[in-house]
Amino acid sequence: MERYGIETRNMTKVYGEQTVVNQVNLHVQKGRIYGLLGRNGAGKTTIMKMILGLTSITSGEALVFGKNIKGNERRVYPRIGAMIETPGFYPNLTGTENLEIFARLRGTARPNAIKEALDVVGLPYRDKKLCSKYSLGMKQRLGIANAILHDPELLILDEPTNGLDPIGIAEMRNFILSLSKERGKTILVSSHILSEIAMLADDIGILHGGVLLEESSFAELERKNRKYIQIQVSDPKRAILVLEQQFGLQQYEIEDDACIRLYDTDVDIAAINKALMLEDIALISSQMCSDSLEDHFKKVTGGEGIA
Question: Which of 18, 81, 267, 303 could bond 152 through an S-S bridge, CB–CB 3.0 to 4.6 Å?
Answer without folding.
Answer: 81
